[in-house]
Design goal:
The protein has 301 residues and is an all-alpha fold. It has eleven helices and no strands.
Length: 301
């Protein structure tokens, strides 16, 4: 009983050891320290090796002994990724934000398949396990965390998501309308491929996105004229999401340039940086504007 209470006390101390959490945080989340840089290098190498293992396993060109070595290596890498995942949760004050974030979900999905293979027994489960193991390739998305430009792109996409969603909804309405009109024009033609509205909508999507498979084509003059109009519309609307994301990237890059160190007064710091890369002073943290705040700002003007 004394042993159990002693173990509980040590576990409680471990969970509330702020000094240990800060040290782990500086290693796992920061890249400014030597230990943080070494951890990032090891993590990048492990991610790359794990993805290569997935590719090699799918080739089926090695003897059984080689596959055994690949499987053991995968178990070791999975253990490392599990420790890394738990360490990130442990050192954060609000772990829920990481757990339900994009990279948190990627970390979890990339680690689960190996553990699922231990519990799903039976020959009829082998294909399911194999499919789960392919999820390991998601680890490659973690490499974005080590590329500042990648972080800028992901942040810009996240901020632009509401505008792009509205634009996507508009395009969805447009292709549905154009497909229905094409069905009205070509649907009564003998042996027409526009024999139903879903096929017509599929044709409108292929045409408007300028993919042009050519598996469904109009034959009447009116249908060909409408097809030409949709092609021209497609060229004009494809650039809209690119413009939205580009404008957001420029805005985010300007915010990054404005981040100035309070000690040495030098700018150009990354958005996620906590310390100045020139003198090491702690930077003032600026919360990113949410789409709601941006909308209110636009309404004021």
């Amino acid at each position: 009983m004394n042993y159990l209470s002693k173990w509980r006390r040590k576990w409680h101390q471990f969970l509330h050891d702020e000094d240990l959490k800060q040290r782990i945080y500086s290693i796992v989340f920061e890249s400014d320290t030597p230990k943080g840089k070494l951890f990032d290098i090891i993590l990048i190498g492990s991610i790359t090796l794990s993805v290569l293992l997935v590719i090699l396993e799918s080739m089926h060109i090695f003897p059984h002994s080689a596959y055994l070595a690949l499987r053991i290596t995968e178990y070791i890498l999975t253990f490392f990724f599990t420790v890394e995942y738990l360490a990130r949760i442990y050192c954060l004050k609000q772990p829920r934000k990481y757990i339900f974030s994009f990279f948190g979900i990627v970390d979890l999905l990339a680690t689960l398949p190996v553990y699922l293979s231990f519990f799903l027994h039976g020959s009829h489960y082998l294909l399911v396990i194999r499919a789960f193991r392919l999820i390991r390739v998601f680890r490659i998305f973690k490499l974005f965390t080590f590329i500042n430009e990648g972080n800028l792109l992901l942040r810009s996409l996240w901020i632009s998501a509401p505008k792009i969603s509205i634009f996507f909804f508009f395009v969805l309405i447009l292709v549905t309308s154009m497909g229905t009109v094409m069905y009205m024009i070509e649907g009564n033609v003998p042996d027409s491929q526009f024999n139903n509205i879903p096929n017509s909508i599929y044709w409108a999507i292929v045409t408007m996105t300028t993919v042009g498979y050519g598996d469904i084509t109009p034959v009447t003059p009116t249908g060909r004229f409408l097809s030409a109009v949709i092609m021209l519309i497609g060229y004009t609307i494809i650039a809209v999401p690119t413009g939205i994301v580009s404008a957001t990237m420029v805005s985010e890059h300007k915010k990054q340039e404005k981040r100035r160190c309070p000690r040495c007064h030098r700018d150009g710091h990354e958005f996620e940086a906590l310390y100045c890369k020139y003198c090491g002073a702690r930077l003032k943290q600026e919360k990113p504007e949410t789409p709601e705040k941006e909308r209110r700002a636009d309404e004021r003007f």
